[in-house]
Amino acid sequence: MRCPFCGDEENKVIDTRLTKEGEEIRRRRECEECGRRFTTRERLETVLPRVIKHDARREDYDRDKLQRGIVAACVKRPVSADAIERLLDSIERVIHESGEKEVPSRSIGEEAMRGLIELDSLAAVRFASVFLDFDSSDDYDRFFADLAERRDSDA
C-alpha cells in the first residue's frame, strides 16, 4: 500500500477493525518513511452486473458515480456519510442478489430513491429531479403526491 503523502510503499498496520456490517475491514497504517498515518479499507470484490442505460448503452457498474449523485442530493442535509455508505451497500446487495448479468439503470435509480426517501425526503426530491429529468413544477407536484401516497400506505 502506497503512502498517500510521500508515495513510499513501506508502512505498518497499527490497527485493524471490522466495520459494523462486517463487510469491510478498516486498517490504520503508519508510513515508515514520513511517519504519517492513513486509513485503508478492504472490501470483498464482487462482480456486479453491467448497467443498461436509457439509450441502450451498456457500461460497468460504477459505485463512485452513484455515490457522487447521492452525495450531491444530500448536500446541506442531515444525512451522514455512514448512512450514504449503508445505502450504497444496500443497493449493491439488491443488484448482486438479483442474479442478473445486466440491470437497467432505472432500477438502480429507483432503489436509490427508495433509500433516500427513508433517509431524507428533500434529498430524495433532489435526486429524483436529476434522475427523472424534472422539467416543470408538475413533475415536482407528482413526486410529492406519490411520496404522500407512499407514506399513507406505509402508515
Task: Give a topology summary.
Blueprint: E1 11-18, E2 24-31, E3 37-43, E4 50-52, E5 58-59, H1 63-73, H2 81-98, E6 102-104, H3 105-119, H4 121-131, H5 137-154
Parallel strand pairs: 4-6
Antiparallel strand pairs: 1-2, 2-3, 4-5
Helix pairs in contact: 1-2, 1-4, 2-3, 3-4, 4-5
Give a written overview of the molecule:
By secondary structure, this protein is α+β, with helices and mostly antiparallel strands. It has 2 domains: 11-43; 50-154, no CATH class. The chain is 47% helix and 20% strand. It has helices at 63-73, 81-98, 105-119, 121-131, 137-154; strands at residues 11-18, 24-31, 37-43, 50-52, 58-59, 102-104. The protein has a 3-stranded antiparallel beta sheet, with no helix packed on it. Strands 5-4-6 form a 3-stranded mixed beta sheet. Helix 1 (63-73) packs across helix 2 and helix 3 runs antiparallel to helix 4. The radius of gyration is 19 Å and the shape is elongated.
